[in-house]
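U., I forgot to send this yesterday:
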Amino acid sequence: MLTAPADMLREASLRVTKPRVAVLEALAQRPHADVDEIAHAVRRDLGSVSTQAVYDVLRALTDARLVRKIEPQGSPVRFETRVGDNHHHVVCRACGRIGDVDCAVGHTPCLTASDDHGFTIDEAEVLYWGTCPDCATS
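Result:
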């Protein structure tokens, strides 16, 4: 993470709190983590923190666009701090591992829809599904 969590929160006009900082730090170390993974990491750093508090922090961070929510079908909701670049994801059908995928051609070509129905499009969600190298060899 290039910017310190406290600075990220201030730039987004959010109060700097220990749970918010801990969640951002957990996500910086664990991209694509689910709520349970994040809560476990936060508890390791801060001690007792409720799962609801982690959900509340994630909602505030997502609303402020400091965190991106990923919802692969059949998988728990995941979160990441890589925001603002409209990248995509690849998901392993066997183990659920997720990786980042940059746009394949040019600058965000996926934002040019064949029919935008009058919408101003600012984000596209693309999920590629397959089998990761570890699962393919086992």
